[in-house]
Amino acid sequence: MAKGRIEVLEQYCKSCGLCVAACPMKVLRISEKTNAKGYRPVEQFKEGCIGCAMCAVTCPDAAIEVFKIQE
């Protein structure tokens, strides 16, 4: 299976949760920590990202970058 990883641009994330709902592998969650604006950014909390980019496509604030991992 393909592998990927995400980077969340925490300063732009507003904790809407759309990416969490869109992730088919269920590897995202809302973080406990807050960003400078008081929002709790999304984080990848476990392995299993396939690099499908559904999270990034769904994000209204363009706060997620997706990277494919070459095996």
TrEMBL record:
Molecular function in Gene Ontology: iron-sulfur cluster binding; metal ion binding
Domain of life according to the entry: Bacteria
Record bears the keyword Iron: yes
InterPro entries found in the cross-reference section: 4Fe4S_Fe-S-bd (IPR017896), 4Fe4S_Fe_S_CS (IPR017900)
Keyword Iron: yes
Pfam families listed in its UniProt record: Fer4_7
Keywords assigned: Iron, Iron-sulfur, Metal-binding
4Fe-4S ferredoxin-type domain mapped to chain residues: 4-33, 39-69
Protein name per the record: 2-oxoglutarate ferredoxin oxidoreductase subunit delta
Organism, scientific name: Aminivibrio pyruvatiphilus
